Each structure stands twice: as structure tokens, then as C-alpha cells.
Amino acid sequence: MDATALLLAATLSAGTVLAIAALGLLINEKAGIVNLGAEGMMLCAAIAGFAAVVHTGNSWLGFAAGMAAGALLAAVFGVLVIWLNTNQYATGLALSLFGAGFSAFVGISYVQEKLPEQARHVIPWLGDLPFIGPALFRQHPMVYIAMALTVGLIWFLYRTRAGLVLRSVGESPESAHALGYPVRRIRLMAVVAGGALCGLAGAYVSVVYTPLWVEGMIAGKGWIALALTTFATWRPARVLFGAYLFGGVTMLQFHLQGMGVDMPPQFLTMLPYLATIVVLVLISRNPRWIRLNMPTSIGKPFYPGS
């Protein structure tokens, strides 16, 4: 039972990375923008957050630095694709490649650095409960913040006027423009907000999840987060569920190794990515699932003068 509780706790922690990043990408796509640069933004945010904690000793400043790095890169991406009308997919891939190289260059001097010892987080009373205490109530606050972000995004998208405007920009930017809404500025704000959340996820990886810096440490989590938006058919609650599902698959490899399961470690390592491919293949077999909630103008440029 202790092993199961630890597996559940690790699942929540691993899923938090994917959930925060995927929620950010969901905001982008609800506005009609596809950002394939999540991996690069998360890597740059990871080194920014790690460096901030090394020099200040404050993990929350590390999260702020990661969000700033993600938002800055997303803003550059937004200007290129929204105002200069560059191809969204090519620009996103370029951002991902840039982030991988730039973070590796900047992080050379931080490879051997160690972070200050982190405080243990336990919710009083609840953390002492058998089984569910270790599993649910001894998590870093960012785990609960990810859950709150999901609820907040549901409320914003489906219960507020601003959320309705954002979705209308993703559905029909021409109609939104005709009604007087600044489509380009709305899309840029959505891209920056999404980049900040990707940055927060990247900083969480280097500051909390694996408190160290090594080159390429995001290890495909940005791509999995991107796939999660399709897996969830652009619904925030499903994003959170999918993030924990993939987080559980990721942690299962370590759990099986700890139990002494005789299986090649390479196979266990590829489980999360294999699960991503299988899920996307299953979803693609029923295009109606995707068309039902997919923003109509996703990935399409908008020219206000046309």
C-alpha cells in the first residue's frame, strides 16, 4: 500500500508538469494559434528558473523567472506569426530548436550547481491520514495550483465575456474583427499567457520535479503537452485527466523497476511516448471527436485588411 501511495503521489507530481504546459497551449489554440515551440520555451524557462533559485535561494522567484522567460519567447513568436504572418508551424519548430540550443549554452556553468534544500510540504491533519495522506496531501503547492488553474480556465472560457471573445477569435477571427475586437492583440495576449504557463511548467521541472539542470532535461514533455490538447479535445478538465494519465505511465516505469520486473529499461523509458502515439492514433480513428471542439480557425493566419 505504501508503494501504491508513493506511485500516486509521483503521478500527481509528474502530471503537474504536463497539465500546466498543456493548459497554456490550450489557451493558444483556443485563440487560433498553434505553438510548436513548447519544448524550447520549457527548456529556456527551466534554466532561467534554476539559475534564479541558485542565486536567490527562493523557489518562487525561480517560478517567476521561468514564467518571464516563457512569456518573452512566446511574445517573440507571437509577433512573428501574428503581425509578420510567418508560418505558425515552421516558426514554432524554429523556437523549439532555438530553445534547446540556447538553454544548453546558457546552462553550461550550472550543470554542477545544487539548489538549497527544499522545505517539505504537508497539509496539517490531512497529511497524516493513512494512504491518502502521503498520496494526496504531501505535495508541492504547485500541484494544487495546477488543479486550481484548470478550474479557473474552465470558468474563464465558458462563464466570462472575455473567455467568449477569446473563443470567438479562435472560431471566426473575421467575425470578431467585424464586431470591433482587436483580434491580433487578443491573440498576442493569449500566446503570451500560454507561454508564461509553459515557462512555469519548465521551471517546475528544474526547481521541484528534478531539482537540477542538465541539457535537454524536458525530454519531450513539451511535445506530450502539445499532444494532450488534441487528446483532451480542447477541454481543460480532460487536459488535467490526460496529464495525470501520462504522468502515471511515466512513473510506472520506475515503479516496475523497483518491483524487480524483468523488462528492458529501454522499453520502460519509451512507455510515455508510446502511450502518446497510441492515444493519438485512437482519437484520429474518429474525426468527429476532434471536429466537435477544435477551434475552426486554428493554425490559420488572419489578415485584417483582407
TrEMBL record:
Q: Which domain of life is it from?
A: Bacteria
Gene Ontology terms: cellular component: plasma membrane
Q: Name one GO molecular function term.
A: transmembrane transporter activity
- UniProt subcellular location: Cell membrane
Q: Name one Pfam family in it.
A: BPD_transp_2
Q: What is its main location?
A: membrane
| Keywords, in A-Z order | Cell membrane, Membrane, Transmembrane, Transmembrane helix
Instruction: Please report the record's description of how this protein sits within the membrane.
Output: Multi-pass membrane protein
Q: Which residues cross the membrane?
A: 6-26, 33-54, 60-84, 91-111, 141-158, 188-207, 213-232, 239-255, 267-284
Tell me if Transmembrane is a UniProt keyword of this record. Answer: yes
Report if keyword Protein biosynthesis is assigned. no
Q: What is this protein called?
A: ABC transporter permease
In which organism is this protein found?
A: Polaromonas eurypsychrophila
